[in-house]
Amino acid sequence: MKLLETTNLKFSHFRLMILMPLLTGLVIIVVAVVGIIPGVEVISISRKKLADRRGVSAALSNKAQILESLDRSLLERNVALMIDALGVTVPYQATLGKIMNLSSRHQVSITQMQFSGIVKSPLELTLEVVGDFNNLEAFIRSVANSLPLMSVKDVTLSFVSAPDEAETLGIYRLSLIVGIYFSHLPESIGKASEPLPDISRDLENKLTKIRDYENFRVTASRPVESGSTIETLFPP
Amino acid sequence: MTNAALGSPEINLFPSQRRRFQAQRRMFQVVEFGMLIGLVVVALVAMAVWSLVMVSQRSINSAEQQISYLNQKISQLSAVEQQFQLLHNRLDQAAVILNEQQAPEQKIRQAVEMIPRGIDITTAKTNMAKKTVTIQLSTASFDIWRNAVAILESSSLPTIKLAGINRAADGSLGMTVELLMP
Question: What ipTM did this prediction achieve?
Fold first, then answer.
């Protein structure tokens, strides 16, 4: 009986001091491996995902806010202006209208106009114009500072006649090479999640400058009435 | 403490044995309590972790819903976005064009005005890539021609390169000068 009691006490000692801590440790390890470690990993992944989603959400919210705050009529006017400035195709009609108008305004005669090179921006236009030096200079400046956008690449001035008393520098034949710009529509406006491009101060200044340019936009053509005189592009 | 209090009334223990058993029992109790606390703590930690998992999952779902709503909102504003992007696209290209404009007429005027009266300008040609204006001049008098060269040389603005001199059939002197414009 005493032996049995001693054995019970020894088993109790073994159970409490070794078996139970082992089992408890095992349970803790199992709970940690099955429950806590994957949970912590999931939390870590979730935090990254959440930060990412919050970033996207903030960007989208910002974008939506900007888009909503835009003055749509002003935007439409600016887009129309910029399409006049930089057309989606070669602005032949607007170019002819502009050159005719400016030659008449600055009292210079156009003797030749030639579009050359392959049709890509800038399309090259060679112009030959005759006139007083000051008028020619004003003509070149107007060509560069009006819409559609053009830039005068190089000019050649050839002497025609000596200056009389009224003129300061005489009559010249001006040959100028003009680049006419156009640009096709962009193929894509990007993803919805991408932020809107920034219109910098410099771009705003350029827009203001272009707004001040004279615009030779194409107006609807009208039929030639019978008996009306046809305007001569190249006066004799 | 009696044997009955120790839970084994049948066993008669010596006082030293009794103290040892009492100490062992207290230790057993501490171990049991420790194990219990450990299990409870682990269970609580596991519960907290999975609660956090659920909370973060809910936050992700909420953010996804917000993104979906904003995407829908932006797609409703796509016409405005297209116009804005188009404006930026044109403006960006226009800025490059405007920055590249060089006003060659100013260079020509600057060069032409340097040529003294009495000398005819046959041609004046810009080369904006090289920043030069090449002028062909002619004059009937050698003295006027020499005077012109002196004036051009004394000018501090352009760098002058005398490209060639020739005498035409009518006896006039021709000269080609290349002015490097600032």
Answer: 0.77
